[in-house]
Design brief:
By secondary structure, the chain is of the alpha/beta class. α7 packs antiparallel against α8, α10 packs antiparallel against α11 and α10 runs antiparallel to α12. The longest helix has 26 residues.
């Protein structure tokens, strides 16, 4: 501004009291407005005013503690700063408040307080004579101050230039400040620099109170000198010592002080300051594809120009670190010895022949073609059958790295594809992060519980997996964080699921589904003695010389304490036995160290054989009864010890006990946990011909019940079925109640149709269904039996329950080839194509009304 111009502030100003700092002329400050008095000022003056004068307010520093602020107006500081409200921002969170951006204009003195509410209003006297300030264009012509003031002004200017010179000139703010030193009038420098350097509010208040320019220079110059000395000390402490065996790299232009250097080891220790040269060598040595290399070099160029103080510096550096750590060209060599792979798979897992055969096929093809893409396999089966462990075994067989990704409950597609780097806290997805973890580009990835993916507002992760699990697309998988393509074609993906029903069809179509069925009792015995028992002995610090579990005991555990498709419950029961034996062994060690306990201290139950089971068979019976000596080894678990440890039997063979009345039959059901037997009960009473269904049934099962009822009514005369009063219509004057026990479990599906027909036929005829028969199959209104799924799981469930005859649809006869030979030998399979054959096989001696009731339908002989 010219010398004959100036800024005249209004003689009356509203006062804004602030606790947050001291606003000096020529500086800009953000002030938070929360008190009621200041809120009224903003609403009534700044927001409603239309003229320029309405945006000029007086800012008074409030020295009172804000915690003790009251409604009474505090004693006002006599000097304040007139400021121009440049910006007003309001918010309601966490409570209503405003944020003001105010630029200081000049000092004023409070002459008289005119009013206190709703906000203070005062008559003020302008102190800074703004007309004495010279413009930059006239500075060369205007004479500077003389005498002591001129000397102070020159010293202050030189100190300011020295201070700015010690800062990093590549930072835009620092370069702008250096230009301002030459363009601003000398009179404004004390206020501007005092607001920028590190000073306390008390020191700034002293600068504000310095009305005369000479006093202002004297107050500010020591603060400037102190800041310069602090920077010199900082440079001195950060300057490294130069050793003969180390080379010195000049610091790049960035957010550090000029002249600062870092020593770096010859090996490239990137833990010291400036390691962009080391990072550049890593980028060029990562053997990444050309598109990824171009992106990294571009980001590296940006990083060199970026000061370390910028938030984007850390984001860019983390991105480059990830890019150089990814295994773009690192891979492991597959072990293609098929014989060794077969031996390793057989030693790790018993049974599972289909899965082992598929792995060997992959190895054989890899021998013939080295560039084979990794297959996308999906193991589907009940829990506890070893789907996850067989994936780990496959990785060990191939000699590859293994990485498991748990997908259960994942509902954000960013978990698969990653977040874009524009977001705060962005990170790569689980696929890229897994590759970084294993360090090779051809690992075995296990996508666990792929059927339990969720969906939310953050996207559908199942849809994000479509690109990952598509062999035609995953050679250029693009993670949102990387934003460059990565080749996943050499990764062997193995997904696991309990059921395919919840997997989207598009995702299921991209995977090769391999069914992993439940184990037979004989297979469970082998698995227990080959894997589970040795593992539990090791986990509990026991040895085979201390504990032995015979095969008969293992069979009792399987049949009477567990009923599952897998072996998890079996392993838990074996662990309970090991813990009980560990107590005995520990007590034995304590007794050996001290004298033998008296006879009264023998644990309760020892006289019933418990002590005998802890001794060798050839020892006399009275040894353990006389004194509590340590048990001789090994401790053999028999059926009595089993009951003492695990308690009463959990499962009993109750099939024959529950089929003692007409109207009861056994059906077979499939669940994600494996096959199950299902009892179906029916009763009738006088009524109006209504059919009641209970047991939490689905719509399909309810329709099957109505189908069964309609077929029996249409064939009542043929099968000599009557109602309660002897009529030919089974529903005339009769209500039927059909119940499926275990009512807390939801049931649905068409496979219970033949069981419902058999139950109702038994109820209406008064004949008992054979107690050793279980059945499954869908029915039609014309009496045909249609095929169903899950035959192997259902047959294994019937075998576990002690059933001897299984009725299945004729068209499911091909599924019997998957059933183990030992199970087929113990069961009679009846294949039926219509309901006549089902009823003929379900009742002893056939069913009345059949043309040849004593001739069984197609019976598949025991193989």
């Amino acid at each position: 501004m010219s010398s004959n111009s100036g800024i005249q502030i209004p003689s009356r100003l509203p006062l804004l009291l602030t606790h947050e700092g001291v606003l000096l002329p020529g500086s800009t400050m953000r002030i938070s407005v929360e008190t009621a008095r200041n809120m009224h000022l903003v609403k009534n003056r700044l927001l409603k005013g239309t003229s320029l004068k309405s945006t000029i307010i007086g800012v008074i520093p409030n020295t009172r503690d804000p915690e003790y602020d009251t409604e009474d107006l505090p004693t006002l500081h006599s000097i304040g700063t007139a400021g121009l409200a440049v910006q007003v921002v309001g918010s309601n969170w966490p409570k209503p408040h405003y944020t003001l951006l105010i630029t200081g204009l000049c000092r004023f003195r409070v002459a008289q307080l005119l009013k206190e509410g709703p906000f203070p209003l005062a008559e003020v006297e302008q102190l800074d004579k703004l007309e004495q300030y010279t413009s930059p264009d006239e500075m060369s012509e205007a004479p500077g101050p003389d005498g002591e003031l001129g000397e102070l002004s020159q010293r202050f200017y030189q100190a300011a230039v020295q201070l700015v010179g010690m800062l990093d000139m590549s930072v835009p703010v620092v370069a702008k400040l250096r230009r301002l030193l030459d363009s601003l009038p000398r009179e404004t420098l004390p206020d501007v620099l005092a607001s920028m350097i590190h000073t306390s509010n008390k020191e700034k208040l002293q600068v504000l109170d310095a009305v005369s320019l000479e006093e202002r220079f004297k107050k500010t110059l020591p603060l400037l000198t102190r800041q310069i000395e602090g920077l010199k000390l900082l440079q001195k402490t950060r300057k490294p010592r130069l050793d003969d065996d180390k080379r010195v790299l000049a610091v790049r232009k960035g957010g550090v002080l000029p002249g600062r250097q870092f020593s770096l080891d010859e090996e490239g220790d990137d833990e010291d300051g400036d390691d962009t040269a080391v990072l550049e060598r890593k980028v060029k040595g990562a053997n990444m594809p050309e598109p990824a290399l171009r992106v990294c070099l571009k980001e590296l160029k940006r990083l060199k120009k970026m000061p370390q103080s910028m938030p984007e510096y850390a984001l860019t550096r983390n991105y480059l670190d990830l890019m150089v750590e990814l295994p773009w060209s690192k891979s492991t060599t597959d072990c293609l010895d098929i014989r060794a792979a077969r031996v390793l798979l057989d030693s790790d897992h018993y049974a599972m022949e289909k899965l082992k055969r598929r792995v060997l096929e992959y190895l054989a093809v890899r021998q013939l073609k080295s560039t084979l893409k990794g297959p996308i396999l999906c193991f589907v089966g009940p829990p506890g059958v070893g789907k996850t462990s067989v994936g780990r075994s496959i990785a060990r067989t191939l000699g590859r790295e293994f990485h498991r990704i748990a997908l259960g409950g994942v509902c954000d597609q960013s978990d698969i594809r990653g977040h874009r780097r524009t977001y705060v806290g962005s990170m790569p997805g689980r696929i890229i992060n897994g590759l970084k973890t294993v360090g090779v580009n051809n690992p075995v990835f296990l996508l666990d519980e792929v059927d339990k993916l969720g969906k939310s507002l953050q996207g559908d992760p199942a849809s994000a997996l479509l690109e990952v699990l598509d062999p035609e697309q995953n050679h250029s998988f693009t993670d949102h964080y990387l934003n460059v393509a990565f080749d996943l074609s050499q990764v062997l993906f193995i997904a696991t699921a309990n059921s395919t029903a919840t997997i989207p069809p598009a995702l299921l179509d991209r995977m090769e589904v391999l069914q992993v069925q439940g184990y037979t009792q004989e297979e469970k015995v082998e698995i227990a003695h080959r894997h589970l028992i040795p593992h539990q002995l090791e986990q509990h610090g026991l040895t085979p010389q201390q504990l032995q579990i015979p095969q008969d005991t293992t069979q009792d555990i399987i049949s009477k304490y567990t009923r599952e498709a897998g072996v998890r419950s079996l392993e838990r029961k074996i662990g309970a036995i090991c813990r009980a034996v560990a107590v005995k062994v520990a007590e034995g060690h304590n007794v050996t160290k001290s004298e033998a306990a008296p006879a009264e201290s023998v644990p309760q139950g020892a006289e019933h054989g418990e002590g005998k089971r802890g001794r060798r068979a050839e020892e006399p019976d009275g040894v353990s009864a006389d004194m509590a000596a340590p048990p001789d080894m090994p401790i053999v678990i028999d059926h009595i010890a089993l009951k003492d440890i695990l308690g009463p039997h959990v499962f009993e063979m109750e099939v024959s006990e529950r089929l003692t009345l007409p109207g009861v039959a056994v059906g077979l059901a499939w669940t994600p946990l494996g096959g199950e037997i299902m009892f179906v009960e029916a009763s009738r009473m006088e009524g109006e011909g209504q059919l009641t269904l209970t047991g939490q049934l689905g719509d399909v099962m309810k329709e099957s019940a109505h189908l069964a009822m309609s077929w029996l009514r249409s064939n009542a005369k043929t099968y000599q079925l009557t109602n309660l009063v002897g009529g030919s219509d089974p529903l005339e004057g009769t209500d039927i109640h059909l119940h499926f026990p275990a009512g807390a479990v939801t049931k649905d599906g068409p496979s219970a149709g033949v069981t419902m027909v058999t139950v109702l036929a038994s109820l209406f005829s008064g004949r008992l269904v054979r107690s050793d028969v279980a059945m499954t199959g869908e029915i039609t209104l014309r009496g045909l039996v249609l095929p169903v799924g899950g035959i192997k799981d259902k047959v294994l469930a019937a075998h576990r329950a002690g059933v001897k005859r299984v009725i299945i649809p004729k068209r499911n006869e091909k599924d019997l080839e998957e059933i183990p030979a030992n199970v087929r030998k113990e069961l009679d399979f009846v294949t039926a194509s219509n309901l006549d054959e089902v009823l003929n096989a379900a009742f002893d001696g056939g069913f009345p009304g059949m043309s040849n009731p004593l001739t069984l339908p197609h019976i598949v002989s025991k193989l």
